[in-house]
Design goal:
Layout lengths: L6 H28 L8 H28 L7 H32 L2 H27 L6 H6 L2 H21 L9 H8 L25 H16 L20 H9 L3 H32 L11 H37 L2 H21 L3 H6 L1 H24 L1 H8 L11 H8 L1
Helix pairs in contact: 1-3, 1-16, 2-3, 2-6, 3-16, 4-11, 4-14, 10-11, 10-14, 11-14, 12-14
Length: about 425
C-alpha cells in the first residue's frame, strides 16, 4: 500500500496463492505419498518449500530496495511492487504448502493415541511462534540503536525471520528419520490394478527372528503387518483403479476424481474447514489495516510527514500487538485443548470455536474502542487453534474408524479410489 498499490488489488495479491495451493497442493500430497527419496517421503518437500518461503520473504522485505536499484523512482515503485507481489505469492504458497507434508510427517511418526497431542503441540508452537513474530513487528526498531545499525524496521524483521526459519527447518529435518519407500516396491506395484504405499514409514522395523529365511520383500511385509497390528491405522495412497504408469498416478485428472468421489464425511469436514478459513483469513489479512484506518483514523497514502500517516502507522503497530494477543491466546488454548477433548467431543469444540469467533468479530465491527478491539483478539486465537487441530483429529478418526476406513478411506470397488493421508490432508488444507 505504501508503494502505491491500488486498494482493490490488495486482496487479489493474497488471492493468488490459495488458488495455486488448491491446484498444486493435492499433487504435492500425492507425490509425497509416493516419494522414494532416501531422506524419506515428507522431508524433501518440507526442505524445498522452506527454501521457497525464504526466497519469497527476501523479495517481500527487500522488493522496494531492489526496485530502487533497477529503475524505480521516489514516486514510481513499479518494479518494487512487482517484486513484492511475486514475493508475497511465493512466500504464502510455500509456507502454506509446507504445512501439509509437515502434518503428514507428524501423522506418520505418531501412534494414534499420540496424534491429537501432536496436533495440539503443533498449534501451541504455531501460536507462540506467531506471538513472538508479531512482537518483533510491534516494536519500533527505527527508534533503537540496533534497528538503526541494521538499516531500519524491515531489515530487522527480515534478519529475525530468516534466522528463525532456517533454524526451525533444520530442527525438523534432523529430528525423527523416516523409513524410505522402497523403489523396487514402487516399481513392482506400478503394473497392478492399484498402487498402495507401505503403511506408516516409522518407527524402525522390528527385529527379525534368528534363523528366519525371509527375503527383503517378506521383511517389508512383516514390518507392515507388525506396524499395523501395533497402531491399527492404515494410511494407503491410491487415487484410482486401472492405473499403470507411475506418472499418471499423480495426474490432475485422478486428483479431480479423488475430490469428486470424496467420502461424505470428508466432504462435510472440508466444507466446514473452508468456511472457517474463509472467515479467519478475511479478518487476519485486514486486521492491522483496520486498526490503522478505522480505529486510529489514519491514511496509508497520506504524505509521510502528515498526522494522518503517523496515525495509520501507530494503528498498524497497535494491530501487531492485537495479533500478539491472538497468537498467545491460540497457544494457551492449544495447551488446554487436550484436556477439553477429554470432557467434550471434537464436534462440540469445533462448534464452540466458530461461535466464539463469530461473536468476537461481530462485536469488533460494532466498537472502535481500542481496549474492546484488542480484548476480542482472544476469540481469534480460539478459532486458529481449532482450525489447526480439530479437522485433522477428525480426519485421523475417519482413518481409524473400522466402518469408515474400510468402506471409504482405504477404498472399495464401489468407490474406485484408495485415498492417501498425504492427499486427504492436502485436500483438507
Amino acid at each position: 500500500l505504501q508503494m502505491g498499490l491500488p486498494d482493490q488489488f490488495y486482496s487479489l495479491v493474497w488471492f493468488i496463492s490459495p488458488i495455486l495451493g488448491f491446484l498444486v497442493q493435492p499433487l504435492i500430497g500425492a507425490w509425497s505419498d509416493r516419494c522414494t527419496s532416501r531422506f524419506g517421503r515428507r522431508r524433501p518437500f518440507i526442505f524445498a518449500l522452506a527454501l521457497g518461503a525464504l526466497l519469497g520473504l527476501s523479495l517481500v522485505l527487500n522488493g522496494r530496495d531492489i526496485g530502487g536499484v533497477l529503475a524505480d523512482t521516489a514516486s514510481n515503485h513499479k518494479w518494487g511492487i512487482v517484486l513484492t507481489v511475486c514475493g508475497v505469492v511465493l512466500m504464502d504458497f510455500s509456507a502454506d504448502s509446507a504445512d501439509n507434508p509437515s502434518h503428514a510427517y507428524m501423522m506418520d511418526v505418531c501412534s494414534p493415541e499420540d496424534q491429537d497431542r501432536g496436533l495440539n503441540i503443533h498449534a501451541l508452537l504455531a501460536g507462540l511462534g506467531g506471538g513472538f513474530g508479531y512482537v518483533v513487528g510491534g516494536i519500533n526498531w527505527d527508534q533503537t540503536r540496533f534497528g538503526k545499525s541494521m538499516g531500519g524496521q524491515l531489515r530487522v524483521i527480515y534478519v529475525f525471520t530468516s534466522i528463525t526459519l532456517a533454524i526451525t527447518t533444520a530442527m525438523t529435518l534432523l529430528s525423527i528419520p523416516e523409513r524410505p519407500l522402497p523403489k523396487s516396491q514402487s516399481r513392482k506395484n506400478c503394473g497392478k490394478s492399484h498402487l498402495k504405499s507401505p503403511s506408516l514409514p516409522l518407527p524402525p522395523s522390528p527385529p527379525v527372528a534368528l534363523g528366519s529365511a525371509s527375503g527383503p520383500d517378506d521383511a517389508d511385509e512383516d514390518y507392515n503387518y507388525n506396524f499395523k497390528s501395533q497402531n491399527g491405522v492404515r494410511y494407503e495412497s491410491h487415487l484410482g483403479e486401472n492405473v499403470e504408469p507411475a506418472e499418471s498416478q499423480m495426474s490432475m485428472k485422478l486428483l479431480c476424481i479423488a475430490i469428486y468421489r470424496m467420502p461424505p464425511s470428508l466432504r462435510s469436514l472440508c466444507t466446514n474447514h473452508f468456511l472457517g478459513w474463509l472467515s479467519f483469513e478475511g479478518m487476519l489479512l485486514f486486521y492491522t489495516d483496520f486498526m490503522g484506518e478505522v480505529v486510529y483514523e489514519g491514511d496509508p497514502k497520506a504524505p509521510h510527514d502528515s498526522e494522518a500517516y503517523q496515525r495509520y502507522n501507530a494503528g498498524v503497530s497497535m494491530g501487531c500487538w492485537g495479533m500478539c494477543i491472538y497468537a498467545f491466546s491460540a497457544a494457551f488454548y492449544s495447551a488446554i485443548l487436550e484436556k477439553l477433548e477429554e470432557r467434550f467431543s471434537l464436534r462440540t469444540l469445533y462448534f464452540f470455536a466458530y461461535l466464539a469467533f463469530g461473536l468476537g468479530t461481530g462485536l469488533t465491527t460494532l466498537s472502535t474502542n481500542i481496549y474492546v478491539v484488542l480484548s476480542l483478539c482472544v476469540t481469534y486465537g480460539v478459532l486458529f487453534s481449532s482450525l489447526c487441530t480439530l479437522p485433522y483429529s477428525l480426519l485421523c478418526e475417519y482413518y481409524q474408524s473400522p466402518q469408515l476406513s474400510s468402506i471409504h478411506f482405504c477404498g472399495s470397488s464401489e468407490e474406485g479410489t484408495r485415498r492417501g493421508m498425504g492427499v486427504d490432508i492436502s485436500l483438507l488444507s
